[in-house]
Amino acid sequence: KMIFDGLSAVGDDPILRISILYKADNNPNKVDLGVGVYKDADGYTAILKSVKEAEQFLVNNQQSKGYLSPAGNPEFNKAVEELLFGKDHPVVKQGRVATMQAPGGTGSIRIGADFLKISHPDATVWISNPTWPNHFAITDMVGLKSKSYRYYDIKEGQFLFLEMLEDLKAAKEGDVVIVHGCCHNASGADLSNDQWDQLADFMAERKLVPFIDIAYQGFANGVEEDAYAVRMMAEKLPELLIASSYSKNFAMYRDRAGAIAVVSPTAQANEINASHMLKIIRSIYSMPPDHGAAVVAHILKDDSLRKQWYQEVDDMRGRVKKMRLLFVKKMTEKAPNSGFDYIVDQNGMFSFLTLLPEQIQTLINDYSIFMMANGRVNMAGLTENNIDYVTDSIASLFKA
Known about the structure:
By secondary structure, the chain is an alpha/beta fold. It has helices at residues 14-24, 49-61, 74-85, 90-93, 104-119, 134-141, 161-168, 193-206, 228-236, 267-284, 291-301, 303-334, 357-367, 387-396; strands at residues 31-32, 97-103, 124-129, 145-150, 152-153, 158-159, 176-180, 209-214, 240-245, 257-263, 350-352, 369-370, 376-378. Strands 2-10-9-8-7-3-4 form a 7-stranded mixed beta sheet, with helices on both faces. It has a two-stranded parallel ribbon with strand order 1-12. Helix 2 (49-61) crosses helix 11 (291-301), helix 3 (74-85) crosses helix 11 and helix 8 (193-206) packs parallel to helix 9.
């Protein structure tokens, strides 16, 4: 028997499957609300001007393509650490943070999961229901136990904060809780600052460890505002992990710029923890790719480019919020009983439409409006050109 012939096929990734169906569809009015990337008012994922300028600077000034180190670009690590923690955060001043570049948010979470596997192999990782599917996939792949906690009711369009706390009461000391720092993927429902405070106190009391996944900093309320959970939890809890991604807020998806940060109880523990993370990195991919990180580093250390980037993030956030408002306004006019008001208060690119499975299939099959089978849509896929077609099509589902 051959060693490679005992496997059965793995099903296609649902998001990629939707993308394939969309590309194969011939309807000139087709709309892709499935793929999770930002799109501008023309439905295009453009390169930011600040990124273009930084790339040109690198072309003209970069002297070498030699390796850096397993930790990656040191200027990038310093710049994103400041973006996450601010300028004078106590844990940074105390030498309790180690930040390492990684290939995107996915790579960051993978390094964090591998680190948990060697530092606390008996921990259960608690993951929100619903969540980004890779949270479960990565946890399972490294051999950690996982459990889900209630977070959002898709049918009712409701955030379940009390139920979340109720479920986490079953977590044991040393268990890890993955939370989305802002713009929860896939519900768009975020904790308020008061709720973040409550959760931090709850976790401190029960000695739970937060693993904060922050992939959309700037897309909820602003770059500084969206760092609230990271900064506050780092003050209240002795240890945590933070996986951050710069794919969305720099619109550099394919360049894979991300970082994993560990906060340790002491500076001495931090050195030890960092050494283990570097060992993990060395064994997976040895050195991270530099281009995306070098671009981010250059933008964040150049006052003019940084200011331009802040404006571009504001514009992206503003466009998505505008589409949320317009969608709800038009749906309220066209189908007053459709009940999509909750979408206005949500953050980031994603929301669930409170539709029945057969209604979702009708939108895909009859109207070529593509979305996930559970109703998750990318609000950035809406534009002023397609909003009427989309809302007319959805409204038709509510007519007797």
